[in-house]
Amino acid sequence: MSGRPGGGEGRCGLRNTLFPAPMACKAGANTHDEGMTLIDRRAMIAATGAALILPAHLSAQTRPEPFSWDRLVARAQRLSRTPFVDVPPHPRAAHVDYDAINQARFREARTIWGDLPGDTGIRLFPLSANAPQPVTIALVVGGRATPLRYDPAMFETPGGNAVAALGPDAGFAGFRIMNAARDADWLAFLGASYFRAAGAQKQFGLSARGIAINTSLPGKEEFPRFTHFWLERTGRSSVTVHALLDGASITGAFRFVNSLAPDGVRQDVTAALFPRRAIEELGLMPMTSMFWYDQGNRAQGVSDWRPEVHDSDMLAIRSTDGTAHTRPLVNPTAPRASIFVEPSIPGFGLLQRDRDFDHYQDDGVFYDRRPSLWATPTAPSGGGQVRLYEFPTDSEYTDNVAAYWTPAVQPRGGARIDARYRLDWSSATASPGPMVAMVDAVRRAAADAQGIERLVVDFSGVSAGEKPDIWTDVAGGTLVKRAGYPILGKPGFYRVVLDLRRSRGGGTTDIRLQLRNGQAPFSEYVHYPLGA
Fold first, then answer.
1. Which of 21, 253, 325, 382 fits 76 for a cystine, CB–CB 3.0-4.6 Å?
2. What is the pTM of this model?
């Protein structure tokens, strides 16, 4: 995830690219023809049998084969018992650069299920320098799967475009699901095991992926790939995606039940994983994002004119004891992993809580509209850790943040791991619980002549007249002074000011902060690494 080469996905350094390579480049808003946006639509009833007719002009020259979840799981298990063989990149994909991919338009008439009502039109991505390895895509109708045949005529391209030069058997890089108006997509799978969905504000942001392998271990990260997809139209605003995962250390079968609703996208995920060998760090429900700077983390030397630039600004965790933890994101000076041990995990997510346009002033990629992503296990998770991994970035083009759940029991070769969880992509600011004040903003001040630094944390959701107690714990430094008071002119807001002296020799001062009424929690439990 740290920008190291992986999975043969390549790298990019251009804003508004279609999709990130494995944690190596970061997309802003997508400007590819219709754009990656979302229209408000209500989930509808299941499709009729007539809605599942296979488009004949897209079918491969092969006979349909039986398909089921059980067959896919068995296939993944068999694959895990064989040596890993990676799919080679297409020899001409390296020539399909940013300009070529954005000039190639998928023809409206070739949209799969394009003649059916609802938000389920499928359009396909061509191979490119950032996604050079072809995947197999099939349509499922009545329990039988028919692979799609690649046809260069699917794409309208200007003369000399490198997409047209890929040839008649190039294969696809991935796919996206269009809204009913066919002017935007609400879900896309492209590159390694990455996928993204949009919130209700018509904007893509952070990404998720099927699995994370050794993400925080230098030089050991792996990027398993979705090599095969099976698509099934299951409603007017619902598409079920099955996927086969293959990698050096693991294989797996995935089922994503995807639905579009007015408040965003929901994915109900089922996975059966089969490690080929022991895995030092397995990340389940992984999500990746970008944090460059905000009002409290503007790095020295940043010349960008915008006040803040980030896809997400905080990690949130719901504990089994009801505690709502929050860890504001930072752009650290060196890679760092933060670990939160839990007996089980009710839920966690990377949030874009700040949704004030004035705080970003970006009218091109609209960071204030980026969705938050929340993961909720729907089967017992057992004990483990939520891990947050951050590494330095000096631009908005690098995904430098990852969060995932690591089981306490290290996976061994030949085992089976089952996981079920829900992913909610939403633009709403979810409450951490009743009567719990939320972190609204974090600001810092540099050390003064006495070496004292200031941390300012603003909370929202504090009723007028409340006088909460301020609980703090400081490691790697000394708390010199603390104060708290309502913010004048902002009803419901309460400001905490901490003056701290960091330990000699530098290092990080880890701060824990919570508003309480006596011993009863009154706010989110804040974790902050000053000096990271």
1. 253
2. 0.88
